[in-house]
Automatic annotation (TrEMBL):
Protein name per the record: NAD(P)-binding Rossmann-fold superfamily protein
Gene Ontology CC, one term: cytoplasm
InterPro entries reported in the protein's UniProt record: NAD(P)-bd_dom_sf, ODC_Mu_crystall, ODC_N
Membrane-spanning intervals of the chain: none
Family: Belongs to the ornithine cyclodeaminase/mu-crystallin family.
Length: 117
């Protein structure tokens, strides 16, 4: 069972964007079902569909179907999928992270710290 104490959809303004990056387990949530139902949802990678609590729970409760997730980060970057369609649309980005991104971030931090002035 997942308890919820996160963001509620009725608190969002038109055109808002949600970055949900903290719920890396199915039992965790950062927003309510309505934000997932009414937002245009993207993921960092396909793993988010089976690990992020917002999505796992939404699929189980019939809030949205897995194929209603608009796309992933690679598709957005490559232009395969478009981002926001208009200024009023609410977009949602769900990220569970990846080891590659963590490694690259650590490398960048190390290079920045050890760079000679």
């Amino acid at each position: 069972m997942c308890s919820f104490s996160g963001l509620e959809f009725d608190k969002l303004k038109d055109g808002a964007h949600l970055d949900l990056v903290g719920s890396y387990k199915p039992s965790m949530r950062e927003c309510d079902d309505e934000a997932i139902r009414r937002g245009r949802v993207f993921v960092d990678n396909e793993v988010a569909k089976v690990e992020a609590g917002e999505l796992v729970g939404a699929f189980e409760r019939g809030v949205i179907k897995e194929d209603e997730v608009e796309g992933d980060l690679a598709e957005l970057i490559k232009g395969v999928k478009s981002g926001r369609k208009d200024g009023n649309e609410i977009t949602v980005f769900v990220s569970v992270g990846s080891a590659v991104v963590d490694l690259l971030s650590a490398q960048l931090a190390y290079e920045t710290i050890t760079a000679k002035p």
